[in-house]
Amino acid sequence: MAEFDYDVLVIGSGPGGYVAAIRAAQLGLRTACVESRETLGGTCLNVGCIPSKAMLHASEYFDAAANGAMAKLGIKVTPELDLPTMHAQRVDAVKQLTGGIEYLFKKNKVTWLKGRGAFVDAHTVQVGEQTVTAKDVVIATGSSVTPLPGVTIDQKVVVDSTGALELPMVPAHLVVIGGGVIGLELGSVWRRLGAKVTVVEYLDQILPGFDGDVRKEANKIFRKQGIEFKLSTKVTGVTVEGDSATLTVEPAAGGAAETISADVVLVSIGRKPNTDGLALEKAGLATNARGQIEIDHRFKTAVDGVWAIGDVVPGPMLAHKAEDEGIAVAENIAGQTGIVNHDVIPSVVYTWPEIAGVGLTEEVAKERGEIKVGKFPMLGNSRAKTNHEPDGFVKIIADAKSDRVLGVWCIASVAGTMIAQAAQAMEFGATSEDIAYTCHAHPTHSEAIKEAAMAVRGKPIHI
Ligand code: FAD
Ligand code: NAI
Fold this sequence. Notes:
The structure is a single chain. The protein contains 14 helices and 22 strands. It is an alpha/beta fold and 463 residues long. Helix 1 runs parallel beside helix 9 (319-333) and helix 3 (49-66) runs antiparallel to helix 5 (83-107). The mean pLDDT is 97. The structure holds flavin-adenine dinucleotide (FAD) and 1,4-dihydronicotinamide adenine dinucleotide.
């Protein structure tokens, strides 16, 4: 009889966990995955990437019809919002994709153990009434919403991202606390559907972590779209009375407080790693000061046989980062060499236009050494111009001596798709010249990446 019930036990079935489980099974390891939700797929498929993109996609059509963008193309329509149908297509997308993971588990012979997992020791996990053992355990428990002290999320008037995906009515005034990715994506959804949206951000600019030029330009574009921003402002309290809320805000640097009333308040000030109830201490593990589980470059924790990936470990909280770590950890467990290049993880904000970046910001690159920067406006790109999408630019940051590309940033309608070529080029160690001399199909938005690369040497053609 085998010493352990399973070779690999994965706790959590988000993009990190389900991918790790499938890859481990593909490598011939007897694998189980513990998940406490009703459906597989974690935050991403159930309440994150997928449902938010379903609402962004649908609301984009509504907005194009409502704001005159379609009329400009010779299509006269007066849209009527059918919010229940819009929500139904969101729910359907989630159902299909979470069901798809269940199918993939069956196909790859991954056992789904339903329930919450808690360590008994490093190789033993309690799942409900059941105790299971495994030679290797992967913690992929993800993250959940960071609460704002003193503010209660009731999912009616004060909501988190999950509540904001499901609002039964378009609020007259939505106040978003936090001008990060969730605030801008979900704020955009409800702005497009008719809400007045105000974003209150503690820092002096939105989208921390993104390139400085991109943050400024994005803010300008969102303001033009009608979103109001209160930057350098902190929320000191939210009171709810009946169907509305009153926020008290004051300048971050101190000063006179003011109040803002709202029909719905979205709290989107970040996410925190999920380790509550895992009994990490029984496995001999502890979290760091930020609540994350520390790992080495192979995703191994401080305890032999226990590994961790995804949002629960340090690094950007992104689904594709979790997925790549899922593949790598399974390969490492199987004795292969699984690697993730954490210097080349793209980030995309799925607003209109999209905002995307990979590698270093100009600010960070400058701190590290001498750089050259090439910038090309989407206004000079024939496809963007033809499609009436003048906003945005592409920026390429290269090392001044070696010309190696250090970072690429785009604001463009399809920036999320464009950034893939930049990530691939960087993965291959490309120079800006390599990109400039790569033939790009015409007319595509991606030609702006080639032109930005040409601009690194000061020689773009179309501007
Ligand atoms: P998760 O997806 O959080 O999955 C962890 C799973 O583990 C959960 O299902 C949880 O129920 C389960 N679990 C936790 N503890 C236990 C336990 N003890 N026992 C059993 N099960 C347990 N990222 C992108 O890259 N692109 C996007 O467009 C994007 N959009 C987002 C939109 C929103 C609104 C949100 C909230 C997030 C979004 N993200 C996006 C982030 C993305 O969802 C996360 O980075 C990703 O889901 C992390 O994957 P994970 O596998 O680490 O964890
Ligand atoms: P975030 O970290 O992107 O943004 C939070 C914002 O809130 C920051 O700008 C921060 O300065 C601000 N803030 C913090 N405390 C505040 C306070 N008290 N008052 C006012 N502002 C305050 O976090 P967000 O938007 O909640 O997203 C969480 C995670 O989910 C992110 O790490 C992101 O990577 C991931 N995500 C990714 C998406 C994508 O890839 N398209 C989409 C949605 C989420």
